[in-house]
Predict the structure.
Amino acid sequence: MDERKQKQIFDEWLSEHKGIMFKIIRAYAFNPHDADDLFQEISLQMWKSIPEFRGESKASTWIYRVALYTATVWVRNEKKRPPTQPLADVEHALTLTDRPRDDRSDWLYQQIGQLEPIDRSVSLLLLDGFSYKEMAEMLGISESNVGVKVHRIKQYLIKESKEVERHGL
């Protein structure tokens, strides 16, 4: 593939699927500097992956897979700790619409950010409506493992939401 064609595909993917990247960045990077670093790393890996894309899946599925893998490796390499507060400083950069802030959404992303990297990935894919089979293929785990993870994540979120209700946080 020549560089011109690669650039055309990259520009299309970035334009059409930047929301995927921003969701993953929001769940894996917890300050403006890290968000910028992770965006650059995901962009670089997406660029490098274009020649390997064979069209056997949707571009969005491929981008999810590349971005999630890149984010989990980045976290492992950076050895970051979970956030104690939402990513307020770069919220404007990660907001794709003019909708008002939603405290429930902020809370959910804060909770997702505290999960282990693979569980963050499962959470984001689940929120975007991917099937267990699609998630298993993207993450390289079995469908039954996806099911177990989804169940445990839901239980965790239920427990945490009850804590919020109980303490009025």
User: Anything to note?
Assistant: The chain has one domain: 3-167.
